[in-house]
Amino acid sequence: MSADSTFQDERLGAKRTSGDARARVLRDRPLDILVALTRSDLRARYGRGYWQFVKWLIDPFALVGVYLLLRLVVFDRSGHAVGLIIACSIVPFQIVLLSMGSAMNCIGLREPILLNMSFNRMLLPLSSVATETFAFGASFGLLALMMIVYGVTPTFATLFLPVVIVVNIVFAVGLAYPSALIGVWFPDVRLFTTQAMRMLYFAAPGVVALSEVSGRTHQLMRLNPLTALFESYRDVLIYGRLPALWMLLYPAGLALLLLAASLPVYRRDQHHFAKVIA
């Protein structure tokens, strides 16, 4: 064997070793990979610079304005702190809806790295939720502003808000993994899935509070997990009381059931994603 061929073999071996080491690093440092995926998602979805924060703030304000007009003009229903009541549904719903939409596209958008890199693919839907959580955090300025506008004073129950937020994020994660599978195996129904979630919003007390609904409709709305989320925010921010236990356990339990059903399927099929999207 010549010296040149030996040198080439050594270089190939070194590259292979380096590639294997890099792959092990990517597998062994999931937090770093999650941060990298989230940062790239933020740039892709919201751009760079200060415009990110402007867009995060504009979206929920615009939605609250639209639904406020719907309630006051179309339904002709006023009431106490109606803007804050609507904001308490818009803000938590945004992270759920946008996480689902992002998760349905997270596999296809990652085609280059799926084809060329070895990393923990279980993090892809989670990175979608992490991305929307940043926008979700920026939207809390809307809740604070609405509390000031309507003269709603924070109470002891407001300290319970982080627990409600955690339940909200857990619910978004629970929907993200089945949404990612839908985006891979049934890409033609992505729009239908998003619209179905929007319909679920209107089947919940989004524009009106649950206390304003009576009879059979009141009972049916309680079956909607979004009802529990919306009313939890209203309890701690408007009514000054702790949410009922079912408002926390219902969406969290449903999220865990969705994860129990979708994670084994996702884990089994993740190695075939590159073949599907190629």
Secondary-structure blueprint of this entry?
Elements: H1 3-28, H2 30-46, H3 51-74, H4 82-109, H5 111-116, H6 123-138, H7 140-149, H8 161-185, H9 190-202, H10 215-221, H11 225-239, H12 245-269, H13 273-277
Helix pairs in contact: 2-6, 3-4, 4-6, 4-7, 4-8, 4-9, 4-11, 6-8, 8-11, 8-12, 11-12
Number of domains: 1
N-to-C order of helices and strands: HHHHHHHHHHHHH
Task: Determine the number of helices (DSSP H or I, runs of at least 4 residues).
Answer: 13
Distance between the termini: 39 Å
Structural class: mainly alpha
Number of strands: 0
State the helical fraction: over 70%
Describe the biggest sheet? Answer: none
Catalogue the unreliable spans: 2-23, 72-76
Shape: globular
Question: Roughly what is the average pLDDT, rounded to an integer?
Answer: 77
Oligomer: single chain
What fraction strand? under 5%
Radius of gyration: 23 Å
Task: Give a structural overview.
The structure is a single chain. The protein has one domain (3-277). Helices cover 78% and strands 0% of the residues. The protein starts with a helix and ends with a helix. The protein is globular and about 55 Å long. It has 278 residues and is mostly helical.
In short, what is this structure?
Helix content is 78%, strand content 0%. The chain is mainly α.
